[in-house]
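User: Hi! I'm working on a homework problem where we have to compare a predicted structure to a textbook description. Could you give me the structure for the chain below?
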Amino acid sequence: MSMPSPRRRGLVGYMLALEVILAVIVVVSTTTVSAFGERNPSSADLAKRLGPFYTAMDGTAHVPAPAPPVAGASTGSYTWDCGRNEEHHLNTANVVVTPKFPGPPHHVHDYVGNLGVQDDSTAESIIGAPTTCRNGDDSTYYWPVVRYVQPGQDGHGGPIQLPVSLTMSYTGSPRGPVLPMPRLLRATEGDAVAYTNGGALARSWWTCSNTLSRQTSKYPVCDPGAEVVRILDFPSCWDGRQVDSPDHRAQMTFPVAGGGCAMGMFAVPHLRITLAYEIPPGQRYQIDAFDGQANSPITDHAFLINLMPDTLMAKVVDCLNQGRVCNDAL
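Assistant: Happy to help. Predicted structure tokens:
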């Protein structure tokens, strides 16, 4: 019986060594190390470690089915691009609630749209300022920043996380056509003090990029490779008279059951802002909430002041009422 040549034995040894190296690479590449130093922890285990404000998406509520549209409903959509605050336009102003005054230093807002909003701004003073929106939308849109929570800190000083993607979209009403939103109309989404205010006005919705059919009012712990998704849904029923009100809410309310507006209110375009963040599994994060709110996720909120040019708003309304899919983000 012939023996393998030294050269052949060397080649076999080389191939075996290569297989071992490749196996090690596969194991390493499929192993996830959490913020707690564990390998391949489950999202549920990580959520328990992070505390009661966090959850894995398994078992969370499914997104409710939308109300079926009636004949004559405004079934179109309009999408546009305002960036994701690459300009790092950040401050403590709240030009809707407390114009001309800065807010508390621990409550920082993230912006897209109008770049003129500063601590001493009013709705009128920002008219004509530059905008991040490619379609010429001069409106301001803002919400609390997301921060990482560093060990031993309360989170207010942690690194601010900008979204890796941000989608702006308007949809219509399932009950009929929509009217144009007037210039300088204010809208409030959510409640900054929901944690101590009973939660009736809370509008906090989160999910993961791989579980978009589910939603939660807690901070989601997403699977490796999935993004944390934050959804800001604005009211879409206008009283037809005011652009603001003492509580900054009465002029714009949410639809009632069935998707229509309450008596005396009129359907206008429904704004949804969808933000995605790259947050490693197990990393503690939270919104920059007010003191006394425990940085609870149910205190998430957002504001807008509509400064769309009339011609652009007319285009939006036509897209929605005619059932067309319009995309100015391309």
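For your comparison, note the following. The first strand starts at residue 54 and ends at 56. The first helix runs from residue 6 to 29. Good luck with the assignment!
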